[in-house]
Amino acid sequence: MMLLKKIAYHTLDLLFPYICAGCGVPVSYASQGICANCMESIAEPDDPCPVCSGPMNGSSCPICSSRMTYMDRTIALGEYAGALKKIISSVKFGNNTRVAGCLAELAAVKAMQFASGVDYITAVPMNKKKKWRRGFNQSELLARKIAARAGIRYRDLLREKPGSGSQKILSVRERYINIIGRYEPVCGGLHGKSVIIVDDVFTTGSTINECSRVLREAGCSRVFALVLARVPSGIR
Ligand SMILES: [Zn+2]
Ligand SMILES: [Zn+2]
User: Fold this and answer.
1) Which of the residues 107, 120, 144, 153 has the least number of beta carbons within 10 Å of its own beta carbon?
2) Which residues lie near ion ligand 2 (Cβ < 5 Å)?
């Protein structure tokens, strides 16, 4: 059986050569689309802040000490740079489902390591107009894949209120203010529940922090933010 599988993979490699989504070297069908070097490079920096996953300044976090954060912990696969940045782009813009599955697998392992015993996995929601334009909510697809692998139930818990403007041209401080009140729960029964909320990239943290706040307000006892990558500079 193993031999047959090997032959099948070898044939697939000849027919449909794969290249690594992180660096472009040829990779085998069996590799899930990421080479060993790039796979090894996906790692968090040493001793990140457990709450926001940013760099620590000695024993205190310069980010969490200067603003309210509502997640118990932020779990990130690595920094949004180098190979991981390219890999995420290949999923986001190239719809590379093979690589998406591989990232979900890595994220599920981390979810089980740091956030065991949670009730639901959910995603940062996207308003209907944006979802219609893009065709899908990247974070939701990812969250569903992670949920399936971690054996945790996926559930839509939040929605973005209609008419919410873009955050892109705002400064970090403005982003944190502008986003307040943008999301609302879509269901009840969250009292005492533990939840993982998934987003693809943690840029300033304003979105996932506000989603965490709303989940807490709805009664959740623990909220974990799970992201594929964190922009190294993080919240300022
Ligand atoms: Zn590579
Ligand atoms: Zn922090």
Assistant:
1) 153
2) 49, 51-52, 54, 61, 63-64
* Residue ranges covered by each domain of the chain: 1-41, 44-230
Surrounding ion ligand 1 within 5 Å at CB are: 20, 22-23, 35, 38
Quickly tell me which residue has 């697939």 as its tokens: 12
The helix (H) or strand (E) run that includes residue 27 is strand 26-27
pLDDT digits (tens, 9 = 90+) for 17-42: 788 999 999 988 777 889 999 999 99
pLDDT digits (tens, 9 = 90+) for 45-56: 788 898 999 888
CA distance 55 to 96: 30
Q: If one looks up domain 44-230 in CATH, what number appears?
A: 3.40.50.2020
Q: Specify the amino acid at residue 138.
A: Q
Task: Kindly give the distance from the C-alpha atom of residue 61 to the centroid of ligand 2, in angstroms, as a whole number.
Answer: 5
Cβ distance 54 to 36 under 8 Å?
A: no
What are 17's two structure tokens? Answer: 């050569």
Q: How far is the CA of 72 from the centre of ligand 1 (A)?
A: 33
**Which SS3 state, helix, strand or coil, does residue 90 take?**
helix
